[in-house]
Prior knowledge:
InterPro entries: FAH, Fumarylacetoacetase-like_C, Fumarylacetoacetase_C_sf. Residues 72-275 form the Fumarylacetoacetase-like C-terminal domain. It comes from Amycolatopsis australiensis. This is 2-keto-4-pentenoate hydratase/2-oxohepta-3-ene-1,7-dioic acid hydratase (Catechol pathway). Keywords: Metal-binding. 16% of the residues lie in helices and 32% in strands. The protein starts with a strand and ends with a strand. It folds into 2 domains: 2-62, no CATH class; 66-276, Fumarylacetoacetate hydrolase, domain 2 (Alpha-Beta Complex), CATH 3.90.850.10. The mean pLDDT is 96. By secondary structure, the chain is of the alpha+beta class. Strands 1, 2, 3, 4, 5, 6, 7, 10, 11, 13 and 16 form an 11-stranded mixed beta sheet that branches. A 5-stranded mixed beta sheet has the order 8-18-17-14-15, with no helix packed on it.
Amino acid sequence: MKLANLAGRAVLVTGDGAADIARDSDGRFGPDPLAVLERWAEFREWARSAPLAPRSFDEALLGPPVPRPRQIFAIALNYRAHAAESGFEIPAEASVFTKFASSLTGPAGDIALVDGNVDWEAELVVVIGREARAVREQDAWDHVAGLTNGQDISERTRQLAGPVPQFSLAKSHPGFSPIGPWVVTPDELENPDDLEIACAINGEEVQKSRTSDLIFPVPVLIAQLSEVLTLYPGDLIFTGTPAGVGLGSHPQRYLAAGDVLTTRTEGLGRMTHRLVAPRG
């Protein structure tokens, strides 16, 4: 299944269009995408044989498929080559920070730059579909609703300033956390642990890897996070970015007004954003 947010309403995307979940369930499930995720097991059972009536739709109306997550986690240095280009040793444990929900945006449109050095980071994003607390690695995928594309856009000057890095603030400007275009359930993917992920700027590929290269793969991240805290339906985990970011380039390179940023992951579709001048 592909769950999306079309103009604020939860839809299932099929080969024939988008089926409005509230309409096609006769109100059993409401229009809020997050509310659907909070009843994910019930919803999946209904959707297996639901009489859907998909209609054509304008992809420009797609918003973030999870518009109001309670928690957004992100993982630093989770690909070996990215750790190396950043000048760090391979971490022994996952390095976790948070992003703020006000930075979420949809899979297409304009993103305003801010003063400083704005960088790209293509990421696989995990969407939690079932409350998770002290979950074992072998059970972790049972708590995943699906996967989607993400960008952990980062302003490096603020991120690296001061005695303590400001990861969360530097990565949470408006629009700096695009996700989408939809949440794809793991059963739609041949191997959800091994997907090609890539990023391009103005058509030039700058990142390309496979999620099988994650130092801490999805089950490990869910187990480690849920050992400390509770994961809730709709929570997001940005799993880390592969090598090829601007900070690690020689010479360093950053996003500029007019750049078109394309992000794709195998089986999950793609996102396209245009960077625009800082807002006055």
